[in-house]
Amino acid sequence: MQENGKMPTLSEKPPVGRIFGGDGENGEAKLTASSFKTDQDIRWCPGCGDYSILAQTQRIMPDLGIPREKTVFLSGIGCSSRFPYYMNTYGFHSIHGRAPAFATGLKTARPELDVWLITGDGDALSIGGNHLIHLLRRNLNIQVLLFNNQIYGLTKGQYSPTSEQGKVTKSTPYGSLDHPFNPSAVALGADGTFVARSLDRDPKHMQAMLKRAHAHAGTSLVEVYQNCNIFNDGAFFEFTESASKPFRSLFVEHGKPLLFENGKKGIRLEGLKPVVVSLEEDGFSVDDCIVYDETSRELATIITRMFDATMPRPFGVFYVENRPTYDQQVAEQMEEVLQKRGKGSLASLLNSGDTWEVQ
Amino acid sequence: MQENGKMPTLSEKPPVGRIFGGDGENGEAKLTASSFKTDQDIRWCPGCGDYSILAQTQRIMPDLGIPREKTVFLSGIGCSSRFPYYMNTYGFHSIHGRAPAFATGLKTARPELDVWLITGDGDALSIGGNHLIHLLRRNLNIQVLLFNNQIYGLTKGQYSPTSEQGKVTKSTPYGSLDHPFNPSAVALGADGTFVARSLDRDPKHMQAMLKRAHAHAGTSLVEVYQNCNIFNDGAFFEFTESASKPFRSLFVEHGKPLLFENGKKGIRLEGLKPVVVSLEEDGFSVDDCIVYDETSRELATIITRMFDATMPRPFGVFYVENRPTYDQQVAEQMEEVLQKRGKGSLASLLNSGDTWEVQ
Amino acid sequence: MELAIQKPVTSLDEVTILFAGDSGDGMQLTGTQFTLATALALNDLATLPDFPAEIRAPQGTTYGVSAFQIHFGSKDIHTPGDDVNLLVAMNPAALKVNLHRVRKGGTLLVNSDAFGKRDLDLAKYTENPFENGSLDGFQVIKVPFTTLTYEALKPYGLDKKTMDRTKNMFALGLCLWMYSRPIEPIQKLIAQKFAKKPQIVEINTTVLQKGWNYGETTEAIAVRYLVKPSSQLPKGTYRSIHGNEAIALGLAAVADRGDLDVLYASYPITPASDILHQVSGLKHFGIKTVQAEDEIAAVGAAIGASFGGVLGVTGTSGPGLALKMEAIGLAVMTELPLVVVDVQRGGPSTGLPTKTEQADLLQAMYGRNGEAPVCVLAASTPGDCFYMTYEACRIASKYMTPVILLTDGYLANGAEPWLIPDVETLRPFASPFVTEPNAMVNNKATFHPYVRDSETLARPWAKPGTPGLEHRIGGIEKADGVGNVSYDPDNHHFMVKRRAEKVQRIQQEIPTTDILGDPSGELLVVGWGGTRGAIEAAVSNLREKGLRVSAIHLRHLNPLPPDLSDIFKGFRQYLVPELNNGQLVRVLRDQYLLNFIPYDKIQGQPFKSSEIEGKILEMVSS
Amino acid sequence: MELAIQKPVTSLDEVTILFAGDSGDGMQLTGTQFTLATALALNDLATLPDFPAEIRAPQGTTYGVSAFQIHFGSKDIHTPGDDVNLLVAMNPAALKVNLHRVRKGGTLLVNSDAFGKRDLDLAKYTENPFENGSLDGFQVIKVPFTTLTYEALKPYGLDKKTMDRTKNMFALGLCLWMYSRPIEPIQKLIAQKFAKKPQIVEINTTVLQKGWNYGETTEAIAVRYLVKPSSQLPKGTYRSIHGNEAIALGLAAVADRGDLDVLYASYPITPASDILHQVSGLKHFGIKTVQAEDEIAAVGAAIGASFGGVLGVTGTSGPGLALKMEAIGLAVMTELPLVVVDVQRGGPSTGLPTKTEQADLLQAMYGRNGEAPVCVLAASTPGDCFYMTYEACRIASKYMTPVILLTDGYLANGAEPWLIPDVETLRPFASPFVTEPNAMVNNKATFHPYVRDSETLARPWAKPGTPGLEHRIGGIEKADGVGNVSYDPDNHHFMVKRRAEKVQRIQQEIPTTDILGDPSGELLVVGWGGTRGAIEAAVSNLREKGLRVSAIHLRHLNPLPPDLSDIFKGFRQYLVPELNNGQLVRVLRDQYLLNFIPYDKIQGQPFKSSEIEGKILEMVSS
Ligand SMILES: Cc1ncc(C[n+]2csc(CCOP(=O)(O)OP(=O)(O)O)c2C)c(N)n1
Ligand SMILES: Cc1ncc(C[n+]2csc(CCOP(=O)(O)OP(=O)(O)O)c2C)c(N)n1
Ligand code: SF4
Ligand code: SF4
Ligand SMILES: [Mg+2]
Ligand SMILES: [Mg+2]
Description:
Chain A is α/β, with parallel strands linked by helices. Chain A is built from eleven helices and twelve strands. Chain A is globular.
């Protein structure tokens, strides 16, 4: 009955005496990137940026120290959302835009699981926008990887809520008219506690971002610029390709000055406006540049709004806030009530209120 | 068949020779607040803040110079959303959370109409959050009045996405755990072009805000703090009642310094943080205070984030941006295509592509 | 109490009383307390509140009227009563709105203090109803409740507002007297309720007593009534229960007996919100609640929980059910357990949100894209909501399927005396989780999520966290057994049939259908949901009169009970009364190709048993 | 071309060809061009593309196979063909996936250059199919398309990639030769298409010609076929049309003939997205498009437009329809016109998104809360999508009602030759807007939005901007006539019945049902939607064989045509073939209490006419 007429092969030994769901012999925990691969053929277009994100994710998983069976990948619908099929963990490929809702229920019900949510720019910001912002404000302790290719890939190329205005696509032969979202700004506006951006073509950076996201207790939103080589090829090449990357990309790091062009330029605040200064020509030095503070929502708001051609595009962890997570608070409240009221007795619950006897 | 067994009475003369839908004799345009009243009994609880918002709206309508028949009030579901029944204009009481979607279609189809959207904190920010943020980014030229009572009124008192954390309500006997939205921050994050806040108990201010909202070309979001005297009585009294209002409320105005407590205190920026300074004790003067600039998104973001007990709560127009409206752009694009291609001929459209004859 | 014997006492089999007043008049409380006194008098009873649609309508208006109806008797009571014997009207609006519910010759007990010009105006009475003959044919008893209450409270020096709020106690006391109910239990109740506020206790009991005494002394009331204890009530401990409350208790029972954690996720909507309110107080039973941002998020959270091995339950009403349908389809495809409670209200669209209706049945059966069969159950009385909730959860987890449980506004808010079940008699759930691989591939143990149980056809439920059972599911068609994505045409056909067959197998769980009356006869009434009481009252009545009618009441709507074909063979005609425009009737006609006749009432109100009687008579005599 | 006479030519009535290759092999283009050549040869024809579910699957894999089927003949052609006469397979994956569709004895034309070890591995062939006997019983023609293309293009010094992309032209040329189709029209077409790129034109026509010539010269092919022009085609100008394209044209017709502005709002979803794509190019017809943030927003925008006096239309597929249901209920209550196109795909849930199915009928009929009847129409061929779209808009605005138009993936992507209608023959719409008050209250003219037209029961449509018609509508129950909010029980019952009656009155618009065959007989096949071709082919065939079977095809599903009862009287048995688990059959059984027999195929693929023939034979012979 299976499509390719073959049965899946087993990439692991039976779960006897294991600590981790690793693939080492005798049940020891020797997880590697390939422990996280499944037997499913990957069905993205050759050359798609999704491959890199998958590879980086599989690469960092062993370092996180979470057993495979405690990890869940959950997604909506879109090219990107096929991701869970390729991760040898528990996985749930849900419906379009609703992954944050499923994740909220899952994580609230089972706070001990490590939940990753995979979504696209359409899935997360078009149909799923509401669930995403509510997830962010509630601050469930999960990681959200938003594959932003500025296009609807799976439905073959309509503009998305992150597409630049004027975009000519199948559904906008005369150019799109909708002003796009700035995903980081949306997340900050919705009181997100971890907001970051990375690139499919910068594996090191992406790995670092994924690890930081995982380390954060709360909803970690990592937007990843992802090339859709079929319907929106090169959308991010100015930021990812070596010829332009130094000029167009700015990597922010907590405690470090905002520099780019190999340190030749920097970002300075003039009043509340960020401006580009040349450290070679304008008479400015590194000391004039903003020293990035990822705990400052004000700064994060200003920097993530650098979005036009006159400014380099920022990448990195923009904002981190420590705020109790929803799942943890639910668990605590459950515990408190249990302490206060004792384990509920069904018989006395049924008999509560005014009762009377019929003999 | 009508509930109260009575037929509606006519509050206007037949539309013969009229310019405006006014109620003056001989068709001249003498609109007054009561021209905008309907014959429907108002069914809000006695004492509800909604009455004031309705009154202020009816009061400013004649000044706007828009005929009644060109005005549409559109709403979702909630106590607040009954508003259209009380406005003698065209009106549409739709379904929960979707008013921005109806408004988008209406205004795109008929850009010449003056569209007002009435919504509540649940309607707009809970079920309707996605439509609201998409409305804001698209920037349809309509006015949105968000009645924020920090509670679900119509469903009899559950906490809402703007309720403070820890709130004990019918659905949270042990206190709510969800971190609330800051509606202005959500709107700014979603690239809203007009963001303001007012209070049900400050008629003058509200009238001013409504007029400014109407004057803005684009989606104008006016959040109105509205007392629900049944389920959340006094939620905003610290900001509205004369004993505390001067200390707890800060009225921002473009080009004016941020002062409160009758000018005794002001808001100064320390780095990117707003701080309260006393102009009497701390050695600061008015000149040290922020002069408000409603065109600065950075400043708006900083000021709207003043949300805890240590800072006064800001009211007024926080942000204004001029950006082409969606409806206007659609109209322009339609016109351009028409110019370029000429009015479409159905016969030639049907006959386009490869055709052949059967004789 | 010695005085009680002074007036003649008439014995009655059954009585219907309607308490009606302004929203602020405390009619719900009055009704509830009278109910308790009636229960303690061992009558059978049924009650129905009637809230205004507005939160707080302006005082004195017709749309601000709040009412509470109670029907009690020494015989079996099935409904809150067709026609009212006694209407207690605290103001003109209450009289105006409810007069049509009083039977000819019935009694109107009115607060004569509340019929001033302003009061009449507010109620939009153009004439005084006492003067224009409109109350002819009723027995009118005017009592100045307000004045008498003020008098009783004079010693306490209270403000007007407080005194006004107490006049319902006067009415209650008087009614207790009229129906020969002891006053002590209510006094005790008040004392308990306000244990921390002795003054409140005192003023309430004082006024209550005054009302009672007034009955003894007034000339206006000549007779008392007595309704003897019912002899048909099964033995045991009883309480009063509302449908929504019963659902919450049902979930507590699942958490307790089912060895299953439960997560209840919901977005408030009338008339389902109370379920959330009740369940949110059950944290010490291990039940978590999520108030979601909308209905889609709520069902999503429930499904997410179920994927995590915690039974996801969500509750809503019609418009919310519509929004949940796409996600319910996902639960069908991923074969996860899910319980969706739909408390039906008047539709379409926002409709009549505070009124009852049964118009979501076809939506529940068919309202999803593609072939997405789910189990559909319906509770038939407030107390039955408890059992059906438990059953819904049991079936959902046993068959790995979504279950939609239909109740309605009438069941949700109506109450009945409920024989408290012995918790030990509730079937414990079989532990639903698998812990071991179920397949060998290339000599290695592995887990195939779509290998089915041969009896139920359920797929295995593997809890994340269980090593070796890692697997991936989703909304795309699944390959039989292995559960991978499959576009294979034959597999699709097979899986569609399989999912349908699985739901069909739930017939195994359905008990034999009870027939009210003989297993054969002239006419069979087929009902479902909250109309049970009215149908049973009608059929019992007509049977007593010798008609060959019987009734069955369906609680399992998909699949239908397996014994229906046989039952239908015993009858010549079939009547299907529904509070909709004919929905179950369509399902039955399709399935059995018999001429089921619809009988509809779409007024936001339950059937009167007399209406059903009338329809039956029309059919059997024609 | 003189050479053409050298090989024997066999005449055939009909032929089915399947072009199959990798997604990158240009099979859709090849198919389309062959189709045009066939149309110009005046054959009747039907085509069906078969896209892979993946956007770009890795080259050479089975799930990356893209195919295009064409069925043509000198007689009436109803379907894209049951079994394939000629399979053109550009690689092993294409052969593997499609072999089962080729009839025994059929021909396999394969690119022999593409069967290396690596190619076979990619297609997961463990053995070479040419060597293991698996192709026994087929006529295998191996042609080294790649080598021959390279040879032909040697003079141009092109890169490999460009040459590879041209080999489909070789196949096309050869096929044109095999079926005696002229090559010139295709050359002309290529020249037009790439007018600005002369080199492309040259290399394509060169390879095309080589393919043709190869047919003449190769020993491998001994026979040519000739399919004579069809004599049954009505006269006129034809074009090829897909269902989705036809919907867009239908909307243009509405905007042109209907004197109505149109707003099309949609959220992309397979297989409906193309409607949005097409309509977005029609701005010069006055049609605005909105790509909404989701399906709810799309239907909301459409309803908002309709409220504004601009006809709102929205298109989607099953999961999206589920999401729109709550809002459609609002359009029912507010009685605003609305057209919802549902291009059905395989379900439930995400299901088989690129495959066809008919499993949303019951959802369309019943999938809303409360009693919310809407008009349901279904298109039966790609070209019929044009007429049914027009009809849907006409009914929606005339009856002030939502109309759901059902099509499916097969209609959406399938194409047929379409006789271009004379635009003058399309009925213009009556102007739907009121401009004057319609009631007098206290001697003043006023507007009551729920006063109905006596013929259609439609309420008046008043455009905002019209002075004196200011009014307010919404989702709460409306008072008859005046249209204010009403909680009155009798009014609700009345309005529910009224809305149902209004939809029922659409029967007035339904033409007499065409019967294929005699009006009486042994068996009547009742179909709907995209199965029309297969049913008609089967019934025509069996009638030719003397069987007393007839068929009707429903395009109006709610309300059903008024003449069905009478038609059913003429037959002894009824068969209802559907691409679902039995949906129309339920509606018919319920409505007519006759023993309609379902025949289902739930494989994401259309019926073969032979399947339906088989079922009919089983029924009439048993
Ligand atoms: C309810 C629903 N609406 C629409 C679709 C169709 N759909 C599938 S994916 C998608 C958008 C994909 O874009 P994105 O989320 O950016 O993912 P990508 O494919 O680009 O990775 C759409 C519109 C659907 N599957 N379900
Ligand atoms: C689809 C749907 N879900 C839920 C409801 C129930 N409901 C009506 S209003 C409301 C929230 C009201 O809160 P808000 O928007 O703040 O308005 P308010 O009543 O406070 O003015 C809810 C949950 C509904 N009518 N429809
Ligand atoms: S369509 Fe684009 S996003 Fe989707 S798999 Fe292909 S390249 Fe990737
Ligand atoms: S419930 Fe609250 S918000 Fe609603 S009408 Fe009453 S006071 Fe106003
Ligand atoms: Mg995308
Ligand atoms: Mg509110």
